[in-house]
Amino acid sequence: QPQVVESGGGSVLPGGSLRLSCTVSGGTFCISGMGWYRQRPGEERTLVAFETNAGVQNYGDSMKDRFIVSRDIRNNAAFLQMSNLSPEDTAVYSCGAVGGTGDYCNPYETTFWGQGTQVTVSA
């Protein structure tokens, strides 16, 4: 199973910006898309933004105005640029990579998840 590692979380003032990064590595795997999800306290995990290898992007409700997803397909990486953050954006942000493993890799087999990175927006 490949390893998914997120970075870039932290604390920021309201109105501030953060950029999250995610990389997938380890073993033989293939990826068809990567994206970001978040889980706010007491809530279920929801989609923030996702981008396929073909460049098709999908954003969660009310996310597209302030969040931008991008990919580095060659390096199995994904990024999330977040701007004009508010306390309601406080959450654990997780990277999900859709893919598979092995020599005959099914790129839609499963989702590999990272541990998540905490984003806290507070004055």
Structural class: mainly beta
Strand content: over 45%
Rg over C-alpha atoms, rounded to the nearest angstrom: 14 Å
Q: From N to C, what is the helix and strand string?
A: EEEEEEEEEEE
The major beta sheet can be summarized as: 7 strands, mixed
Helix content, binned percent: under 10%
Number of helices: 0
Which residues sit in consecutive blocks of at least 5 with pLDDT less than 50? none
Report mean pLDDT, rounded to a whole number: 96
Secondary structure blueprint with pairings:
Layout: E1 3-7, E2 10-12, E3 18-25, E4 29-39, E5 46-52, E6 57-59, E7 67-72, E8 77-82, E9 91-101, E10 110-113, E11 117-121
Parallel strand pairs: 2-11
Antiparallel strand pairs: 1-3, 3-8, 4-5, 4-9, 5-6, 7-8, 9-10, 9-11
How would you describe this protein?
The chain contains no helices and 11 strands. With 123 residues, it is mainly β. 30% of the residues are buried. The model has no long low-confidence stretch (mean pLDDT 96). It is elongated. The strands form 2 sheets. Strands 2, 4, 5, 6, 9, 10 and 11 form a 7-stranded mixed β-sheet that branches. A 4-stranded antiparallel β-sheet has the order 1-3-8-7, with no helix packed on it. A hairpin with a 6-residue loop joins strand 4 and strand 5. Helices cover 0% and strands 56% of the residues. The protein starts with a strand and ends with a strand.
Keywords:
123 residues, mainly beta, seven-stranded mixed β-sheet
Short summary:
With 123 residues, the protein is mostly beta strands.
